[in-house]
From TrEMBL:
SUPFAM superfamilies: GAF domain-like, Winged helix' DNA-binding domain. InterPro entries: GAF-like_dom_sf, HTH_MetabolicPath_Reg, Tscrpt_reg_IclR_C, Tscrpt_reg_IclR_N, WH-like_DNA-bd_sf, WH_DNA-bd_sf. It comes from Kribbella pittospori. Coiled coil: none annotated. Residues 11-71 form the HTH iclR-type domain. Keywords: DNA-binding, Glycerol metabolism, Transcription, Transcription regulation. This is Glycerol operon regulatory protein. GO terms for biological process: glycerol metabolic process; negative regulation of DNA-templated transcription. Transmembrane segments: none annotated. PROSITE patterns: HTH_ICLR, ICLR_ED. May be an activator protein for the gylABX operon. It holds the Pfam family HTH_IclR.
Amino acid sequence: MAGRGAGPDFVESLARGLDVLACFDANHRTMSLSEVATAAGLARPTARRLLLTLEELGFVRSVEGSFQLTPKVLTLGMAYVGALGLWDIAKPHLEELVARTGESSSMAQLDGSDIVYVARVSVPKIIALRVDIGTRFPAAQTSQGKVLLAALSPDELAETLALPSRAGLPPYIGRTADQLRDELTEIRARGWALADEELAPGVRSVATPVRDGTGAVRAAMNVTVHAAETSTEKLLRDHLPLLLRTAGDVSAEWALWQSRPHHEVPQSNQSSA
């Protein structure tokens, strides 16, 4: 993983430390030093120093000779989400949507050719794929990803689709690039996207854009169902109208939040009288 930097200011040690954090996921919650070194493409002594540094900083803990992430890693992602103001705004709307549909709902943003989940309210149903905050999926295989890809210009879309996925899943080969572009054109016109068991068997979802104060698509919101329980017709007839209304409400409140007359100044080092 390391060794990608080309710029004169690239800090290789920082990149390697982030590579170590990225080794851990739902399938690798506890890893040995050797496993981390192999996954990150590092020599064992280098991996050991990085793990011990991350442990001292509180991002990992050692457990019987192996290593685990700590909850502190959430601060890295939540600082980003919090800065956008998205979670505070979206949370009550997502909760209401889930209460009305009885299905899980999430928000995601585009990162390269993948989507990354930034907010989620779920219901305890068996689904083929586990989803947490920070989970990545190839954008072209998901309803949220299609919505976000459809918002890109032709040049941006070509550059994005040329990037390799970092989600660790095989690419979807169900359609050609031209077929995908035609689908994205239709999605852009109608304002929502469907993914019908494209990411995994049994996973069916519909998504719609979430816009910022300028009208630009910055995130996507979805409703996910189990294909054996909910038909495409029911998903589009019953859940899509609620989703469209919810995403519109979140977009409107986000625009108001971004336009608020608020500015923070650094706290003075001098005590006030």
